[in-house]
Amino acid sequence: MRLWRRAERGLGSGKPGGSGFKGVRREEERRRGVFTRRALLLGAGQLGLFGFLGSRLYRLQSEEGERYATLAEENRVSARLIPPPRGRILDRNGQVVAGNQLNWRALLVAEQTQDVGATLDTFSRIVPLTEQERARIERELRRRRRFVPVAVREFLSWEDMARIEVNAPDLPGILIDVGTTRLYPEGEHLSHLVGYVAPPAERDMDGDPLLELPGIRVGRAGIERHHDLLLRGRAGAVQLEVNAVGRVIRELDRREGVPGQDVQLSVDAGLQKALRGRIEEGTSVVVMDARNGEVLAMASQPSFDPNVFNAGVSAAQWRQWTSNRATPLINKATNGLYAPGSTFKMIVGLAGLEARVVAPGDRVFCPGHMDLGDTRFHCWQRHGHGSLDLRGAIKLSCDVYFYEVARRLGIDRIAAMANRFGLGTELDIELPGTKKGLVPTRAWRQAQGKPWNLGDTVVHGIGQGFYQLTPLQLATMTARLATGRAVQPHLTRMVGGKPGRGAKAEDWPSLGIPERDLKLMREGMWAVVNEPGGTALGARLPAALGVMAGKTGSVQVRRVSREQRERGFKAENQPREWRPHALFVAFAPYDNPLYAVSVVVEHGMSGAGAAAPLARDAMVEVFNRLRPAAGQRVAEAGR
Amino acid sequence: MSVTYERRLLTRDRGFGLLQKLWLIPWSFVLLLCAIAAVGYVALYSAGGGSAEPYAAKHALRFGFGLVLMLSIAMIDIRFIARLAWVGYATGIALLVLVLLHGNVGKGAQRWIDIGPLQLQPSELMKIMLVLGLAAWFQRASWERMGNLLFLIPPALAVLLPVGLILKQPNLGTALITGMVGAAVFFAAGTRWWKFALAAGGVAVAAPIAYEHLHDYQRARITTFLDPESDPLGAGYNIIQSKIALGSGGLWGKGFLQGTQGHLNFLPEKQTDFIFTMIAEEFGLVGALTVLGLLSLVLVFCFGVALRCRHQFGRLIAVGLGTNFFLYVFVNVAMVTGSIPVGGVPLPLISHGGSAMLTTMLGFGLLLSVYVHRDAEFGPARD
């Protein structure tokens, strides 16, 4: 054997085996030797490579196994979110003012039909589809996988659904499914308070994965926006096993979400509707519970239908809203800015009493005007009121009396008192974007680079001038006058069944104004409505309901020149947009104040004529609705 | 000595009776093949989603048919086979030409001919016929003669011709395997080492030059073929998913019918090329190494037959077929583990596919014939 190996190494040096049996055998054994060694080499090499495969498998499956196990899990498990139902918004009586409506939709699953075109043709004969809808459906079908449903038509009526169901055998691939959409049953009546929802924009993305879901809506205005997080709830999640093309095989795990909480408002939907039925364009009415600040109604005319936002607002609709000078999208009760006019006189009176520049019994003579240097400031009563005390000055709304008090006070003490009554301050109302308004001070004017003159102070003493106040602030002022407490207006009564703050009068701190002073103001306001000669005698409540106290006001929107005044100025002869605004604030009952009201009628001219009757009607409505016993008495008295 | 002599006498004559031949068949090897086919049945049952249809039942049927074919061929006298080897080779070449002209092209540019219900891939058959042809050429060549360059030229052409035809399909993977099988037979027959070195050097020099002369689209095809990762949504995706499936199987696997990668269709071609991945995912490293071990035993048997055979023809056939079997397994497993970038090679006896099963069993039939007739008398070696 060794011989042959040497022979092979010699590379053919050995002679051929020669002839004969022995030679043949030697040659054969030599050949076999070469073969054996080479075959062993090949075999060993091949087994070695199998060993390499084994080591490769060991590395993949044992050493890196965990990493790949994670990758396999990521492959197969797909987490999906379940949208929670959005919380409802209820009025104070539990009536739903923002709810969830079932949205019946027809969906098409491409893989369940032989011919998508034919199915859509048949569908079109039952429920007509427009060209655009058809194009959208076909576009979505092309983009998605064949088992993903595509919406054919949303918001199906009962009739449409019935027709689709009846024709189901002719509509392979069509299935009916239900989602939810926001519904505002009261439509435009509460839209300024409740707000509306819309699909989230880029800036709404706050990291909540829920917002990524298709069809989700976020609060865009009003309570819907203020309490959006509470109403939204938290998304549930479901872990699904999916295959390579994304089809769901089975559900692995499910974590239920937290449904959005219901929010109960302090508003009475019926009252709101009744008030809105009474008022015209440019008018706003606020009705508050004077004891705890609950807003019972807040009406602003005109308004808009929030349901329109569900399906998306068309450009034409949007243009119509934004170009309308009556500003239907704006809640005038919180965002309309007006000077308070004579409704401000109680503040000046209180400031005067507190600063002791005037005593309750002090009398001022009103000749119909006050001269300051060479400027003459007129009283609304051209012939003058004669000698008046503070109570009488409020009753008759004498301007000269308050010119004099303001002159003695200076603007800053007036402004400080106004702020204590909520005027020019940010109120705690749950409506985003609410205006703070403006109560001018000397510093404010000087910051504008202008001097503050004594004449300015005098004018601001009767609520005219730079003031920019909202009807809500006026209602708050009235509630504070009536109770002496720093109540804050608010709309939320309960969240998720738990009462909101400040339900009791004692929850609110005292304003720190002597009851004696407040009483004097209230007496003046009582006289305005109930005493012969008062400026709003016609606004008296029916005797059975109780006694209302109030204060009229009117604000010029244009300066009245001396020539005009001398020629006998008549506001009613002016064009509408030049006529003064009419205001009225009131509370009732006089001896035990429960409700506060403010009314602003743009270009209504006279507070007594345009605003006071609305305030009276509002008060009657409140008593009828919230105090049935009192309402009963009215009904009996009427008979 | 006397027993051997008697047996030689027997084989030199009309051979021995059919019953005696059956007795000589290594039934342990047949049992080994049955075990591997059973593994295939189980894997295909899983690949069918826990059902014998559509893969596993057919697999069993084909294996049964293959067993009969294998045992029938095992009965044929090896010398008869040697005489007809050139006919087989010529038939293989003819089929390759035919498939180029009239064949169907499928995935991985494999070409096949439809013969009734069977899809025959001539390139598979060709590898076996090439082994037969080369073995017949070398059967009586002495050591001296193997050193003669002129003697080596015809068999070299006999290798290059089918390799060229298969390249033309174009199927680079199978062409390379065919070439390597041919080279293994050359090597075992005693071709001098330096000639291999020379040939390898020649290929190394020629390949870049040939590549330069290719059209751009041809080059692109080769690039994709050699490096599937450059096509991440196609073959690259498959390899990545295969590695995830293997790795996530871990040591003990996810359990029968529990493989998520396979059953959720992340794994492509799981009944053919990626069947090994399926097994490794469900039965883990332990299962994968067991299967690899069983396949190694087949390889060991092939070389065992080669070493025990007393004639050169049989030895070369055993080495050639063994190498062919090895290359199948190696390329397949190396591919699914992402070790080499070649695709389209099934795992013998386990993957679903009629043509591969038939050619594999045909090869084992020849191997068994060699084993049964290992002592047959051929003429003496000639210079």
Q: Keyphrases for this structure?
A:
heterodimer, A: alpha+beta, Penicillin-binding protein 2a (Domain 2), Ribosomal Protein L30, Chain: A, Beta-lactamase, seven-stranded mixed beta sheet, 23 helices, B: 383 residues, mainly alpha, 3 strands
Distance between the termini of chain A: 140 Å
What does the average pLDDT of chain A come to? 86
Rounded to an integer in angstroms, the radius of gyration calculated over CA atoms of chain A is 41 Å
* Strand order in the largest sheet of chain B: 1-2-3
Helix content of chain B: over 70%
Largest sheet of chain B: 3 strands, antiparallel
Given this structure, which CATH class of the largest domain in chain A is correct? Alpha Beta
The chain pair with the largest interface is: A-B, 51 and 53 residues
Question: How would you sum up this structure, described in words?
Answer:
In chain A, 41% of the residues are buried. Chain A contains 23 helices and 21 strands. Chain A is α+β, with helices and mostly antiparallel strands and 639 residues long. In chain A, the strands form six sheets. In chain A, strands 2, 3, 4, 5, 10, 17 and 18 form a seven-stranded mixed sheet that branches. In chain A, strands 12-11-21-20-19 form a five-stranded antiparallel sheet. The termini of chain A are far apart. Chain A is elongated and about 160 Å long. The longest helix of chain A has 44 residues, at 20-63. Chain B has 383 residues and is mostly helical. The model of chain B has no long low-confidence stretch (mean pLDDT 85). The relative contact order of chain B is 0.15. In chain B, helix 3 runs antiparallel to helix 4 (56-75), helix 4 packs parallel to helix 17 (354-372) and helix 7 runs antiparallel to helix 16. Chain B is built from 17 helices and three strands. The chains are: A alpha+beta (639), B mainly alpha (383). At the A-B interface, helix 2 and helix 3 of A face helix 10, helix 13, helix 15 and helix 16 of B.
